Amino acid sequence: MTITQYARPHLAGVLALCQAEGWPSLPADATRAHAVLTAPGVTTVVASDGEQVIGFAYLQSDGYIQAHLSMMAVHPSYRRKGVGRALLEHAYPLTGAQRIDLVTDTAEDFYASFEHRTFSGFRIYPS
Question: Could you give the domains of the chain?
């Protein structure tokens, strides 16, 4: 497994992972997805097995204090093999932040395995 910063050749693999998770936002427009994954203040890293993208993490940060893990996915065949942890450990120092906040509805046990504090959270969808 290799972990590197995202580059355009990774796009198809990242979009395939999003589609497999049922996340429509990035796959809806590949040009927009690439812009999002490389926007200022964004850190995107990918895990690869040879040429296959097996995972990615997308974080937004102010570069000093706060980062937010917006998306992370690992191919089902590679889960519980350290890929997710390796993605976060690689991405975290690249953000420049002192902490990472996140919201999850599927991976509480995984994120609880990191040193953390638990908070209540909301995702707001403006009308």
Answer: 2-112 (3.40.630.30)
